[in-house]
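Form 12-C: Joint structure prediction
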Amino acid sequence: MIENLKKLDEEFFLKNTLNVAMGLLGKIIVKKDGEKILYARIKEVEGYIGYMDKACHCYPDKMTERTKVMYEKGGTSYVYLIYGMYSCFNIVTEKKGLGCAVLIRGGEPLKESQDDISLNRFNKSYNQLNSYEKKNLLNGPGKLCKGLNITREDNNKPLFSYDFFIASDDSAINNFYIDKRINIDYAKEAKDFYWRYFY
DNA sequence: GAGACGATAAACT
DNA sequence: GTTTATCGTCTCT
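Section 2 - Result
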């Protein structure tokens, strides 16, 4: 197990979406996977702000069976299927009813989880991976979900339970990059919002 | 290391 | 019936 991990509380996720997104950089996803606990540090995120964001599933204030989860209060998980094959893990932000979330686009395993996550991704232990596979362990939303075994069964869960939550160690991120979001060419002016953060 | 390409199923209208 | 928007594999450098 890991010492000195502090579970993030609800207050952290109720703040402004972009502040939550930046604040999540360097934080640690803790996910129970069978008998194991997996740990991955968040390296890349994107903010989605429903009411003003054409790239968001909720725009324009579109509550459907799928998107109703995004209208839950901050700290709820939103996991959806894309390409019929992969999952994307988001964390709802701000107060209930706004339809905002942060998409977790990439991460890296903590040392303790390198083997477990490598097995989930490539069915090999970490030291059997080539350098390309090591680099690609969790550097994408679909890869991150596969590596951490985050599935649609994890959709609509409060991220404060013992088996799925976000934690902080005492490390701080001093510098990170800001850029436009990825793969949302359809989103008109929203595709140029600088709401992607990574380091 | 970078670019092209095809796979696929659920939500939505 | 239409929309959605990542990954792995392959090719070439």
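Section 3 - Comments
The mean pLDDT of chain A is 95. The helical segments of chain A are 10-13, 17-24, 114-122, 131-135, 141-148.
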